[in-house]
Amino acid sequence: MTDKAATAETRQDRFERGMKVLTEIDGPAGQRVIDSLADISPELGHQVVAWGFGDIYQRPGLAPRDRQLVTLGMLTALGGCEPQLEVHINAALNVGLAPEEIIEALLHSAVYCGMPKAVNATFAAKRVFAERGLLPVKTR
Amino acid sequence: MTDKAATAETRQDRFERGMKVLTEIDGPAGQRVIDSLADISPELGHQVVAWGFGDIYQRPGLAPRDRQLVTLGMLTALGGCEPQLEVHINAALNVGLAPEEIIEALLHSAVYCGMPKAVNATFAAKRVFAERGLLPVKTR
Amino acid sequence: MTDKAATAETRQDRFERGMKVLTEIDGPAGQRVIDSLADISPELGHQVVAWGFGDIYQRPGLAPRDRQLVTLGMLTALGGCEPQLEVHINAALNVGLAPEEIIEALLHSAVYCGMPKAVNATFAAKRVFAERGLLPVKTR
Amino acid sequence: MTDKAATAETRQDRFERGMKVLTEIDGPAGQRVIDSLADISPELGHQVVAWGFGDIYQRPGLAPRDRQLVTLGMLTALGGCEPQLEVHINAALNVGLAPEEIIEALLHSAVYCGMPKAVNATFAAKRVFAERGLLPVKTR
Amino acid sequence: MTDKAATAETRQDRFERGMKVLTEIDGPAGQRVIDSLADISPELGHQVVAWGFGDIYQRPGLAPRDRQLVTLGMLTALGGCEPQLEVHINAALNVGLAPEEIIEALLHSAVYCGMPKAVNATFAAKRVFAERGLLPVKTR
Amino acid sequence: MTDKAATAETRQDRFERGMKVLTEIDGPAGQRVIDSLADISPELGHQVVAWGFGDIYQRPGLAPRDRQLVTLGMLTALGGCEPQLEVHINAALNVGLAPEEIIEALLHSAVYCGMPKAVNATFAAKRVFAERGLLPVKTR
């Protein structure tokens, strides 16, 4: 990272770097969140993109697929983040997690977060999978 | 407070004292919550008013504007309190916080509560600001 | 429990044991949750029934009525579990808690969880009570 | 409650009413919390006693034993409230819950709050039971 | 799973099946938790092993390494679960996650859970890594 | 912000900008957290400084004192963040909040977060105030 550390970037450079990552991972769902923030908190939209995606997501230390696994765990545990779960379940599919792996991860969450949060997250997955024609899921 | 401490009050006195504070701060939004509780838990409505507003809010040790700032932070962090956030974002505007300050406080919350809760709270602000004709917000 | 511990059960046996408890306590509301999980995570539905109800709920150490009281406290505190609160407020009524006791328990939650979560849970009770013709509640 | 509602009380009256309830339920553990607050936030100590115990706990709509059951559920679900769990596990024993019922309630919490919070709460119970010579607990 | 579903198991069979998984993943740290529960809630210890590990962890749908990633995300987001984080950071190392990947996952959590929870989880990792002679971590 | 947006900065520039803000606000307590992260997650330390302080805290839209008020509310509500509360209660004193205002804000939190979290946060304040010779606090 020495080279990158030495590179001077403008605010706009960082935003563009993040936008590229966001588009790869989240597709239009991420873009819609940024657009919805435009008239109320453009700076929050900027930070989601420039910091969340440009600074953190793009780091090479953890594969995009693994980042989504951790993220699904966090959003399930936090509670009340169903809209974000839908975005990230879409993202998880985009970066190569199988539908069965996502459902298994949410089943696994019952052990740590309890049944209600596991059920809420699983219903968020159902909405996303329905939209993408992935129902019924074949689990064992 | 010595004098007040010595003053004997009925349950109704305390309620009326709280109702005066509630009306000043929240306007009709607070009243609607109390009304909705009337047929299911009038005592909870009473305690919100008599204790929350009559005993705590009216204390002189922290300005109403400052109480709203702390409250916005708490409701954002708790999660799942979007209806209460709408009431208190309205209240925050009523007691003198600028729309830009509210949005900045919610941006600030991203550092402590993470992006999903900051985004959820900002969308609650968007609904309130839309209703009051305050969009788009001019932030830097 | 020595006898039970020695009894070999199949996965299906455990499910059926749980289903019996679930039906007694939750009635059709519990069944609907299991049905909704069928095409997305049948295993989560299985575990809610076989483990949650078959292994835990049916244990003799705590009366069904007491289990619902603890559960109402937990769901209120967790936040964002309004659908589960509705199921369990129904269940609480089914196992013998009076409407007034449920409302009192949710009022009590204000001391420990704060007013917003107490209000959210009370509105979940209002939806259930309305459906069952139990409004207005007569509290003191 | 009409009569009580009509009774004028001073701040001190309400505190004394609450203190009587606190002492009955929590014994010295509750008193220690109030004492620890004396030099930092005597008003918070006052409100815990006058409001939490004087206004809410003493209400007749839910038996003290039942209030402790709900409270154990809430404190387990909130997380990070181990000191309060210890106070209330003591209180639960004082108002007639059997050690086995408390442990069963915390086992039950695993279904709703997940294993980590159930384990944390159970270790809080272990500390209290150890102090009161109640180990080992005979559960089935 | 048809075959397994048809196999009748005793309570003890399920426990032994789980114990095998627990030992493979968590090593002595998991065993210590079960031992500590023996005199206060042996049933909770049984359920952690027989259900958590025997029923859920051993399922083939998600690799052990992936289960730990999801789990680290959940425990970080829940908050107040530092003892469990230490057990599972140990487990994560045992099933093949590199120290750098664990640290990167916890950095990633800052985006979703906020800085305080990310810092708390990172300090839990520091305690585990120190014990295992893994400090300093070489991140980019 | 047009000018700043156009300014190209290196990673190091952003860190230094944040470090200046961190030192002004938190003094040595903030520095200690960064130091403790050096051998386990230097990148997390970098992001706390460069992003949290350099990008967010330094923004002119909300006064430093107001940022601390919101932050105290968030940390109290999150729970399990007592170390961060101590850092930020120190910071709150550094940027001009009176001890009485801090205590009043934490009393206020009882209404929204419940008594246990309010008490936990107040005891964090007690530790900080004791260290700075600010006990007893004179509240009304």
UniProtKB/TrEMBL annotation, chains A, B, C, D, E, F:
PANTHER family: 4-CARBOXYMUCONOLACTONE DECARBOXYLASE FAMILY PROTEIN (PTHR33570), GAMMA-CARBOXYMUCONOLACTONE DECARBOXYLASE (PTHR33570:SF10). It comes from the Bacteria. Residues 42-126 form the Carboxymuconolactone decarboxylase-like domain. SUPFAM superfamilies: AhpD-like. Pfam families: CMD. This is 4-carboxymuconolactone decarboxylase. GO terms for molecular function: peroxiredoxin activity.
